[in-house]
Write a structure and sequence with these properties.
Distance between the termini of chain B: 27 Å
Structural class of chain A: alpha+beta
Shape of chain B: elongated
Oligomer: heterodimer
Number of helices of chain A: 13
Shape of chain A: elongated
Radius of gyration of chain B: 32 Å
Order of helices and strands of chain B: HHEHEEEHEEHEEEEHEHHHHH
Distance between the termini of chain A: 26 Å
Mean pLDDT of chain A: 85
Largest interface: A-B, 40 and 41 residues
Structural class of chain B: alpha+beta
Number of helices of chain B: 11
Number of strands of chain B: 11
Low-confidence stretches of chain B: none
Low-confidence stretches of chain A: none
Number of strands of chain A: 12
Strand content of chain A: 15-25%
Strand content of chain B: 15-25%
Largest sheet of chain B: 7 strands, mixed
Largest sheet of chain A: 7 strands, mixed
Order of helices and strands of chain A: HHEEHEEEHEHEHEEEEHEHHHHHH
Radius of gyration of chain A: 29 Å
Chain lengths: 412, 396
């Protein structure tokens, strides 16, 4: 049966090439745009180099101090003091990576300016983030304690500073008016990976800002890694209980809002959320509304074209009805045909989006990003095809099934 | 004629309803796109208000706050002196971090004559700010050493927009800005400057107020803007960098160029606009092809009717006119409904855009949809006109 429908669908497609072109154009471009968008979001949410333990990690980004009486507020990344003094005492996490938010510094080589983003880290950072080392290795806790001027740099920085593919380990790199000995070179991380991105990683002990400063906010983030996924809820609770223990003795603030979030929530909270709400649901609603609105026009267009095409086939329908085909059979057949059409459009759309993503990756619009169509994006694309094909097929099919046999045959 | 066209459409209302919805949605999309374009273009046309070429920005952080205020001031004064001594440096100014094209903002609500005017951006800087950014003072003067930080009034400069809002078209000089508050000294306007587009070329006018940095401000001011000569290069920059880094040992230092900051700030407004245009452009092509296809198809289905019209004496021109007229009539209906929705935007003040932006956008959107429909209907109409009555009637 399906085979027959397929044959008919192909025959119909061949009949009016211009209409087929319009349908396929609409379907494939709609899907291309949706897939490219999905690939972007997917890349941010799921690309896990070097953060491979993401499914059992929680992220601490913001500490929001408030004074409930006056409405005063101070919000920002945590301070090293707070993370070291309180958070590192937590029992459940297996590892606690502490690293600063990257900050830009300048260096001047051969009368040329380089801007290098520096990140200060502790030693657990290198266990939590599984960087691919091109050469050398990370600095050790011993070296951190000795406040050695030692650096891990990214591939881009090495290429810019020392020359392409020149070995850098053991050499000295100067930035922010200080010299550091290079101990390792790692594969680049895109800037979208906020917790791991940097061009140069330094021990926190060489930071120019005093890490012993006692305030709760400064510029450090933290990754808590649990032993297993099951420990995550308990780890969240433990973080809250740690926060409750931080003394607020007679200070200008009386309440701390901060959360140990999973990766996606930690991003959405800064953009869409607030103290209580993580913002994930807001994001999902916003994206769905956009996708639906965006698909509305191409769907209307497809319905219009399909309706026209069906009337063209009224003679065929009339004959089939006269020989006893039920309306349901016809509706079923037409929707199947339409889904076949959308699937063909979907394949073209996939090819197009593959081309566009390859182009975006190669153009270096966002350095070091590598967008790809993975299983989830593919699944989304196919799901879109089905929804698209179904919706745009239902109304014309319904109109077709209502066609009166006599009028249908008369138009022959 | 119009009644007749309307009747023709009404007779096939089921089929036309879908076309109508499609045109309606297209109109709303085009209206939204034009609103954004008109708005951005209007902003783009206004002058930026400063000369950002050859201005460098030194970012530092105040890591010496444990020192006494005198020491802090001494270090800052020394930095200014040494920077100015570098060959190629023309002027230098300490300023708050909400400098042009940066992401930082500092604003406060302002109530003037018991009327809330809105949010006003506060800029804190020294006596050389106008020099570095190269803008003229329209009325009055910029700060000088004579503006002591301890007078009865706090001297401020305001921009043209704020002046219009607070004082109307008259002179603002010497007037007091804002209602008295217990915590601040009354502010007295000593000058008016033109609007500066701090957020890049596509920014709408905002209120701005300029305050003179007093000695205490130097504890938190964290930017120095330096005007250099056009031929200054990385050599001067690295010298300047070393100088600041050596003076503020515990601070991270970064030097940026205002012209580059402008480009990246503009792209923040441009990139969404370009993406929107691509998406909207694709939707419109899609709709155009669809309309064209459906109109063309309808005409081939109405061969009999057209043949009959021709046979009883309608000229080929009249036939094609009627078909195009039907399409235009249909789009007029869609535009009427669409305009009803569109007019809600300025009426309900859904977005913070001026009403004339919507007016222009509505005009362009209507024009666009009519053009689109005319183009799509023209060829099918011509096809219909070419139908020979004998052939068409023979088919029946």
């Amino acid at each position: 049966m399906l085979k027959n429908y397929f044959k008919i669908a192909i025959a119909v497609l061949k009949r009016r090439k211009f209409f087929t072109f319009i349908s396929l154009f609409g379907i494939s471009f709609t899907l291309t745009i949706l897939i490219v968008l999905a690939a972007f979001i997917n890349n941010i949410a799921r690309n896990d180099y070097p953060d491979r333990k993401r499914d059992r990690s929680l992220y601490i980004l913001l500490v929001d101090q408030r004074n409930e009486k006056t409405g005063g507020r101070n919000s920002g990344p945590a301070s090293f003091y707070m993370l070291d003094q309180y958070v590192s005492k937590m029992k459940i996490p297996e590892k606690i990576a502490i690293a600063s938010v990257f900050s830009a510094t300048n260096t001047y080589v051969n009368n040329r300016k380089l801007s290098i983003n520096v990140k200060y880290t502790n030693d657990a950072f290198w266990d939590v983030m599984e960087f691919d080392f091109l050469e050398g290795k990370a600095f050790t806790s011993q070296q951190i304690n000795n406040a050695e001027k030692i650096a891990v740099i990214s591939e881009d920085t090495r290429d810019d500073y020392f020359g392409k593919d020149v070995s850098a380990v053991g050499k000295y790199i100067e930035t922010d008016n200080e010299k550091y000995r290079v101990c390792g070179v790692v594969k680049d991380v895109p800037i979208t990976m906020m917790y791991a991105y940097g061009n140069m990683y330094l021990p926190y002990t060489v930071s120019k800002r005093d890490v012993r400063e006692k305030g709760l906010t400064s510029d450090y983030t933290c990754v808590l890694v649990a032993r297993s996924k099951q420990d995550l809820p308990a780890m969240k609770e433990e973080y809250q209980s740690i926060l409750a223990k931080i003394p607020m003795k007679g200070q200008e603030f009386d309440k701390i809002y901060s959360h140990a979030d999973d990766f996606v929530s930690s991003y959405t909270r800064i953009i869409l959320g607030d103290g209580m709400n993580s913002g994930v649901s807001t994001l999902i609603i916003a994206l769905t509304v956009f996708a639906v609105l965006f698909m509305l026009l191409p769907t209307l267009n497809l319905i219009n074209i399909n309706t026209s095409r069906i009337i063209e086939r009224s003679s065929e329908i009339g004959v089939r009805k006269a020989f006893g085909a039920s309306s349901t059979t016809l509706v079923y057949q037409f929707i199947t045909e339409n889904i076949i059409l959308t699937l063909i459009g979907g394949v073209i759309g996939l090819l197009l989006s593959f081309g566009i993503l390859t182009w975006i990756n190669a153009s270096g619009m966002i350095p070091n990003i590598s967008l790809s169509i993975d299983f989830y994006v593919l699944l989304l694309g196919i799901a879109c095809c089905f929804v698209f094909g179904f919706i745009s097929g239902v109304y014309p099919a319904w109109r077709m099934s209502k066609l009166n046999v006599v009028t249908a045959l008369k138009t022959v | 004629m119009i009644r007749h066209l309307f009747k023709m459409i009404w007779n096939k209302k089921k089929q036309n309803a879908l076309m109508l919805v499609e045109m309606l949605v297209s109109f709303l999309v085009v209206f939204a796109v034009f609103s954004l374009l008109v708005y951005n273009y209007q902003n783009y046309r206004r002058p930026i208000g400063i000369n950002y070429e050859n201005v460098w920005v030194i970012n530092y952080n105040n890591s010496d706050l444990d020192q006494s205020l005198d020491t802090v001031l001494m270090v800052r004064e020394a930095i200014r002196r040494e920077i100015l001594a570098l060959p190629g440096v023309q002027s230098a100014s300490f300023t708050s971090n909400n400098l042009p094209f940066s992401m930082s903002q500092n604003n406060n609500g302002l109530t003037h004559n018991k009327k809330f005017l809105g949010m006003v951006n506060h800029y804190t800087s020294d006596d050389f700010y106008d020099d570095v950014l190269g803008f003229p003072v329209i009325e009055g003067r910029w700060f000088t050493k004579a503006d002591l930080s301890s007078g009865k009034f706090e001297p401020v400069l305001i921009n043209e927009s704020l002046k219009q809002a607070a004082f109307g078209s008259g002179s603002a000089l010497g007037k007091t800005l804002g209602d008295p508050s217990p915590s601040d000294r009354p502010r007295r306007v000593i000058g008016v400057i033109g609007d500066i587009k701090y957020k890049g070329d596509y920014q709408a006018p905002e209120y701005a107020m300029y305050m003179r940095a007093d000695t205490g401000s130097y504890r938190w001011l964290s930017r120095i803007m330096v005007k250099v000569s056009p031929d200054a290069g990385a050599d001067l920059e690295s010298k300047m960098f070393k100088l600041v880094a050596n003076s503020l040992k515990k601070s991270n230092v970064e030097i940026e160029h205002l012209s580059e900051k402008r480009v990246s700030r503009n792209s923040l407004a441009l990139v969404p606009m370009i993406i929107l245009l691509i998406v909207a452009g694709f939707l419109i092509i899609n709709v155009a092809l669809g309309l064209f296809g459906v109109l063309w198809y309808n005409i081939s289905r109405r061969k009999g009717e057209i043949g009959l019209r021709r046979a009883v004496g309608a000229s080929s021109n009249a036939v094609s006119k009627q078909l195009v007229g039907e399409a235009v009539m249909l789009s007029t209906l869609a535009l009427l409904i669409g305009s009803f929705f569109a007019v809600q935007f300025p009426l309900l003040k859904l977005f913070d855009l001026p009403a004339d932006v919507y007016g222009y956008a509505w005009f362009y959107a209507v024009l666009f949809i009519y053009l689109l429909v005319l183009i799509c209907a023209f060829y099918p109409g011509k096809q219909a006109a070419a139908i020979h009555p004998a052939v068409a009637l023979h088919e029946e």
